[in-house]
C-alpha cells in the first residue's frame, strides 16, 4: 500500500463518513434512549437490554460475538442482582495486520429530567450543533464512533484486525471485568497488539488531546447509627447524640477550605514532582478561563494553569457527594434521622496504595469519632477502590494516534492526564501488558456525569474520521515495524 | 343536674363508647387511608380531600360547618399551591352551657413504606392492641376521639356548646391560620370560653398527662451554590471550592458533641431557672429507661430525670435534619453537587425572640462562611418560625381535665411541657386571650413523625371517654362558677 493509495483510501472513507452523518446520529439516538443506568438497581434490566443491542450491532458488522455471563453481585441490602454480560467481539484475523482491541462501556450515570436537564436525558436532542443526552459523550457516542469507523473502513478494505470489549458496569465499578480479563489474558488477548480506550474528554473545548494517565477513585461510606427509628426533634432534640451531627463533624474533618486533605499521612506516598514533569505541564495549551466557564464556577482554588493541572493530575483530591438516610426533599421535616451514611471519595494518584489509603481514612475517622464520646455506632467502608494509571507517551501507539489527529483536526494533540478515573486503563495495562492508549473524542464542556451531557455533532463525526485514520496509521506503523524487524533478522 | 345523675349519665356514655369501639376504629381507618401529607406539594390535593371528609363528618354530627378558603401560597420554586380550607364548626348555642372550642389537624408528616414501616403507613393496622398508621396519633386519632365523644354525648344530652377549628397545614407551619384567628376573634371566638388542643402525647407510655407549655420551632435553610450545574469529581475535584464542603463546615459549626448550641448569644434570653420550676420537675413521674427504650438510643446526653426534662422543656436544642441537592440515594455517584441546602431547626424556649434568634443564626453562619474565603454564594433563610408557649396550670380548665383523667384512668395526670412545638397553643392564647389547654391522649411511644406511628386501641377508646367525662366536668365547673358569680352579684 503506497502513501498515495493510503491517502486516496482515507479521502474515500472521510467522504463516506460525511455522507452517513444522519445514520450515525440515528444510531446514537437509539442507544441513548436506553436507560442503561448501572448505579440504580431498578434499571439493571435496561443495562442488560443495552448489551443485547451492542451484541446485535457487532454481529451486523460481521464480527463474531461472545456475550460473557458474569453471574450476579450482592447489594448492601443483601439483594442479589444479575451483572450485565461483557461483550467480546472479533473481526478479521489476517496475521499481516495489527490487532487493535477497543474498550468501551454503554452503561450510564443516573439522570432525571428534574435534576435540571433542559431536555429529556434519554432523548438525544440536537441544539446548535450539540447532541444532548445521557451517555452521549460518556461513553455511548465514542463507542458508536469507533464501531462506525470500523464499518466504514470495512466496506472498503480491512487493514486492521479488530477486537471489542464492551461492558455495562463501568459507572458502578466495572464489577467482574478484572476477573474476565485475567481469564481471557491467554486466549482473547493473546494476539492483541494495541488497546484503545475512548472514555474521557479533551482538556479544552476545541483542541484534541491524548491521555497517558488518570487518577484513581477510592469511594467511602461513613455510617452513623443511633437506634432503630427516626425520632422527632421536639421529643428528643437536646437529649441525644444525634447521628447526623456526628456525621457532619466526621465529614467536616476531611478537607480544609483550601482543598487540602486533612487525613494524616495521606500525602506521604504521592510521587515527587520532577522537573521533567513540570515542563510537560508548561507546554500544554489550557484555557483556564474557558475551563472555569465550563464549570460555571466563579473562582478556582489556584490561579495558574500549572497549579490547576497539578491539582487535577498530580495531587489527590477529596470530594463529599452527599448523605443517605437524612431528609433530602424540598420543604421541612423536623426529623432526627436514626441512620445516616455519608459518601465521599478520594482521587488518588501514583504511588498511593489503596489499602494504605483505606487504613488512613478509617483510623482518622475513628479518631475524630472517639473524641466526640458518642454512644452511636460508626461504620466506615470502602465499597469501591480504583487505582490510578500512567502510560509511556513515547509508545508507538501514541504516535499513530497523534498522526491521525493531525490529519483530521489539523493540529497536534496535547498530551494530558485525566483527573477522573478510568480504572480499565490501569487494569488492561497491568493484566495484558499491552500498550494502552486513552484516545478521547469528546470536548471539555461535554458534561459527563452532569446535567445536560452532550457530544457535539462535529466531535462525533470528526471523531469517527480520526478513528478511521488511526486504523491506517497503526497499520502503516505496524507494517513498518514488521519490515524493520524482518530486515534485522535477515541481517 | 345532680352529682348522681351526672354519674349515671357518665356510666351510660362510657358503655356507649365501649359498645361502639369497632365503629370508632373504622372511622380512623378511613381517615388514615387519606395521604393528607401537607409537606409534599404533590399530595396537597389529598389534604384538600381530607378537609371535605372532616366537613362531612361534622355536618353529620349536626354541626353548622364553614369551610374557610385561605387562598394559596407560593413554594420556594415560585409555584402557587392552594391552601386547604380551615373548617370552623359549631354545635349548640345554649347560653346556660359553656362553649368549648376544640382545635385539631388532619394533615400528616411524609411517610413511605420504604422508610422502614412494618405496615403500609396509610392502612390502619391493629397489632397487639396498637393501631399503626400515619396520623394515628398525630393528629387524626385524637380529633376523631373528640368528635366521637361529642357524638356519644349528644345522643344523650348536650351540656356543652361545641366549636371546632380543624386545619390541614399544621405539619407545614399552619399557613394562614393565624390570620384567620385574628379575623374571627370578634366573631367565631367571641362566645368561646375554653380552648382544647389534643396534639401531643403523654410523657410516659402509661401515665396520663396535661401539658402547659411547648418549645418553639425556628427552621433554617442554609443554601450554598457554586454555579450552574453539578460537576464530575474527577474533572473538578481539587481545584474548586465545593459547595457541599462549605455547607458541611457551616452545619458543623452549629452544635458541639454535648448538644450545646455554638451560636453566640443564643442562650442570652433563656428564662432563668427558678426554684419553683425546678421543684415542678422533681415531682414528675418519668421513667428515663422507658423513654430511652422508646427512642431506641443507647445513651442520653444527661443521666438524671431533671436534667433530661430541663433540656427538653427549659433549654433550646438544635437538630440537623438533612441536605437537599446532594446525592442521597443508595450506591455511589461521584458528583460535586452545585447547589446544596442544609436544613436544621432550633427549638426555642421562653423568652427567646424569633427575630433575634434569626439574626444570631444569620450572623454566625455568615461569619463562619466569610472565614472560609469561599467564592460560593451563601443564602440563609428561616422558612418557618413558631414561638414557644406557656400556660397557667392553676386555670380552672386544667382542673376539669384533671378530674376527667382521674375518673377514667384512676390516677392524677402529670403536669408537663412538650419539647416539640404546638404553635397553635401560643397562637390561640395570644389572639383570643381565652384559657388554652393541651390535653393529650396518646402515649410516649406513639412515634409521631416517625416510622410505625401508632395509637393504642386503649388510649383511643379511653381517650374518647376522657373527653366525654371532661364535657361533664367543665359543664359542672362552669355552672358552679356561674352560680358563684351570680351569688356575688346578688351579694
Give your account of this protein's structure:
2 copies of one chain form a homodimer. Chain A is α+β, with helices and mostly antiparallel strands and 491 residues long. In chain A, 38% of the residues lie in helices and 21% in strands. Chain A folds into 2 domains: 315 residues, Aminopeptidase, CATH 3.40.630; 126 residues, Alpha-Beta Plaits (2-Layer Sandwich), CATH 3.30.70.360. The first copy, chain A, is globular. Chain A is built from 14 helices and 20 strands. In chain A, the strands form 6 sheets. A 6-stranded mixed beta sheet of chain A has the order 1-4-8-5-9-19, with helices on both faces. Chain A has a 4-stranded antiparallel beta sheet with strand order 13-15-11-16. In chain A, helix 1 runs antiparallel to helix 14. At the A-B interface, strand 12, helix 6, helix 7, helix 10 and strand 13 of A face strand 12, helix 6, helix 7, helix 10 and strand 13 of B.
**Helix-strand makeup class of chain A:** alpha+beta
Shape of chain A: globular
CATH architecture of the largest domain in chain A: 3-Layer(aba) Sandwich
Question: What name is given to the CATH topology of the largest domain in chain A?
Answer: Aminopeptidase
In brief:
Chain A is of the alpha+beta class. In chain A, 38% of the residues lie in helices and 21% in strands.
List the helices and strands and how they pair.
2 copies of one chain form a homodimer.
Chain A: H1 3-19, H2 21-32, H3 44-60, E1 64-68, E2 72-74, E3 80-82, E4 86-91, E5 99-105, E6 125-127, E7 130-132, H4 140-156, E8 161-167, H5 177-184, E9 194-197, E10 209-214, E11 217-225, E12 231-232, H6 233-236, H7 243-252, H8 275-282, H9 288-295, H10 305-314, E13 317-324, E14 335-336, E15 339-347, H11 354-371, E16 377-386, E17 389-390, H12 396-409, E18 414-418, H13 423-432, E19 435-438, E20 454-456, H14 457-490
Parallel strand pairs in A: 5-8, 5-9, 9-19, 10-18
Antiparallel strand pairs in A: 1-4, 2-3, 4-8, 6-7, 7-20, 10-17, 11-15, 11-16, 12-14, 13-15
Helix pairs in contact in A: 1-4, 1-14, 2-4, 4-14, 12-14
Protein name (chains A, B): Carnosine dipeptidase 1
Domain Peptidase M20 dimerisation (chains A, B): 214-367
Binding site for Mn(2+) 2 (chains A, B): 105, 138, 199
Amino acid at each position: 500500500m503506497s502513501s498515495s493509495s493510503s491517502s486516496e483510501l482515507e479521502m474515500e472513507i472521510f467522504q463516506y463518513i460525511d455522507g452517513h452523518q444522519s445514520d450515525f446520529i440515528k444510531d446514537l439516538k437509539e442507544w441513548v434512549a436506553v436507560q442503561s443506568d448501572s448505579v440504580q438497581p431498578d434499571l439493571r434490566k435496561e443495562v442488560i437490554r443495552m448489551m443485547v443491542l451492542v451484541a446485535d450491532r457487532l454481529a451486523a458488522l460481521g464480527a463474531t460475538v461472545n456475550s460473557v455471563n458474569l453471574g450476579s453481585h450482592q447489594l448492601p441490602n443483601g439483594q442479589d442482582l444479575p451483572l450485565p454480560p461483557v461483550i467480546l467481539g472479533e473481526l478479521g484475523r489476517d496475521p499481516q495486520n495489527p490487532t487493535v482491541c477497543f474498550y468501551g462501556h454503554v452503561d450510564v450515570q443516573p439522570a432525571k429530567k428534574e435534576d435540571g436537564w433542559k431536555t429529556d436525558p434519554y432523548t438525544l436532542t440536537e441544539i446548535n450543533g450539540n447532541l444532548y443526552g445521557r451517555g452521549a459523550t460518556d461513553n455511548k457516542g465514542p463507542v458508536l464512533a469507533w464501531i462506525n469507523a470500523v464499518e466504514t473502513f470495512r466496506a472498503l478494505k480491512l487493514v486492521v484486525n479488530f477486537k471489542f470489549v464492551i461492558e455495562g458496569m463501568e459507572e458502578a465499578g466495572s464489577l467482574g471485568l478484572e476477573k474476565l480479563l485475567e481469564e481471557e489474558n491467554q486466549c482473547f488477548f493473546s494476539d492483541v497488539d494495541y488497546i484503545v480506550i475512548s472514555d474521557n474528554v479533551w482538556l479544552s473545548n476545541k483542541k484534541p488531546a491524548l491521555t497517558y494517565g488518570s487518577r484513581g477513585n477510592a469511594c467511602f461510606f461513613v455510617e452513623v447509627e443511633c437506634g432503630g427509628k427516626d425520632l422527632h426533634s421536639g421529643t428528643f432534640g437536646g437529649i441525644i447524640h444525634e447521628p447526623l451531627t456526628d456525621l457532619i463533624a466526621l465529614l467536616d474533618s476531611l478537607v480544609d477550605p483550601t482543598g487540602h486533605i486533612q487525613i494524616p499521612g495521606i500525602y506521604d506516598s504521592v510521587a515527587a514532582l520532577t522537573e521533567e514533569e513540570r515542563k510537560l505541564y508548561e507546554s500544554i495549551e489550557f484555557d483556564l478561563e474557558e475551563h472555569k466557564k465550563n464549570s460555571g464556577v466563579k473562582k478556582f482554588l489556584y490561579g495558574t494553569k500549572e497549579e490547576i493541572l497539578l491539582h487535577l493530575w498530580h495531587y489527590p483530591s477529596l470530594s463529599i457527594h452527599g448523605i443517605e438516610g437524612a431528609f433530602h426533599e424540598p420543604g421541612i421535616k423536623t426529623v432526627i434521622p436514626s441512620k445516616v451514611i455519608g459518601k465521599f471519595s478520594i482521587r488518588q494518584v501514583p504511588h498511593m496504595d489503596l489499602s494504605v489509603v483505606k487504613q488512613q481514612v478509617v483510623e482518622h475517622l475513628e479518631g475524630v469519632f472517639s473524641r466526640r464520646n458518642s454512644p452511636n455506632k460508626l461504620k466506615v467502608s470502602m465499597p469501591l477502590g480504583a487505582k490510578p494509571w500512567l502510560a509511556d507517551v513515547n509508545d508507538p501507539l501514541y504516535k499513530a494516534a497523534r498522526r491521525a489527529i493531525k490529519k483530521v483536526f489539523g493540529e497536534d494533540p496535547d498530551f494530558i492526564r485525566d483527573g477522573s478515573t478510568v480504572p480499565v486503563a490501569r487494569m488492561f495495562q497491568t493484566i495484558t501488558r499491552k500498550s494502552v492508549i486513552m484516545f478521547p473524542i469528546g470536548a471539555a464542556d461535554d458534561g459527563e456525569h452532569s446535567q445536560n451531557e452532550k457530544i457535539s455533532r462535529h466531535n462525533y463525526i470528526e471523531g469517527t474520521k480520526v478513528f478511521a485514520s488511526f486504523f491506517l496509521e497503526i497499520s502503516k506503523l505496524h507494517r513498518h515495524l514488521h519490515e524493520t524487524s524482518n530486515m534485522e533478522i535477515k541481517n
